[in-house]
């Protein structure tokens, strides 16, 4: 079955860096776009960054442009989110996501999330 497993979260001081990983299985990873979302306490889940299946097209939220970099390794079935210059506003649970065709419709699949806490 489809599985997305995030890792790499933790506690970091403001200004620091973290790299999140998303290990995908159960579907042909190289054929599908991937995204990273985040959800802070009391806020709605928001799109952070998107990467196309071939890695050629990337889209970042304005709040992370110039600080976060999404990438993928289609040989290893891994997606990454490199996060630099972290601020307390980046504290959230981070999720990787993909959308797959299921029964003639599109269905979003999510990982369990990884907590990122940025301390001041």
Unreliable stretches (pLDDT < 50, length at least 5) are: none
Q: What is the first-to-last residue Cα distance? A: 40 Å
Label the overall shape: globular
Strand content: over 45%
Q: Quick one: biggest sheet?
A: 7 strands, mixed
The average pLDDT is: 98
Helical content stands at under 10%
Number of strands: 11
Along the chain, the helix and strand elements come as EEEEEEEEEEE
What's the tally of helices?
0
What structural class do helix, strand and pairing data support?
Answer: mainly beta
Alpha-carbon Rg, integer = 14 Å
Please characterize this protein's 3D structure:
- The chain has about 120 residues and is mostly beta strands.
- The protein has no helices and 11 strands.
- Strands 2, 4, 5, 6, 9, 10 and 11 form a 7-stranded mixed β-sheet that branches. A 4-stranded antiparallel β-sheet has the order 1-3-8-7, with no helix packed on it.
- A hairpin with a 6-residue loop joins β4 (about 35-40) and β5.
Outline of the structure:
The chain is mostly beta strands and 120 residues long.
What key attributes describe this structure?
mainly beta; globular; 56% strand; 11 strands; single chain; 7-stranded mixed sheet; 0% helix
């Amino acid at each position: 079955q489809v599985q997305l497993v995030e890792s790499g979260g933790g506690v970091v001081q403001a200004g620091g860096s973290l790299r999140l990983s998303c290990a995908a299985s159960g579907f042909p990873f190289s054929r599908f776009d991937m995204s990273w979302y985040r959800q802070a306490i009391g806020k709605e889940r928001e799109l952070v960054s998107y990467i196309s299946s071939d890695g050629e097209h990337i889209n970042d939220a304005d709040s992370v442009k110039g600080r976060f970099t999404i990438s993928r390794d289609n040989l290893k079935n891994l997606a990454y989110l490199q996060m630099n210059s972290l601020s307390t506003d980046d504290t959230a649970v981070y999720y990787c996501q993909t959308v797959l065709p299921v029964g003639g419709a599109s269905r979003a699949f999510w990982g369990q999330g990884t907590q990122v806490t940025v301390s001041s």
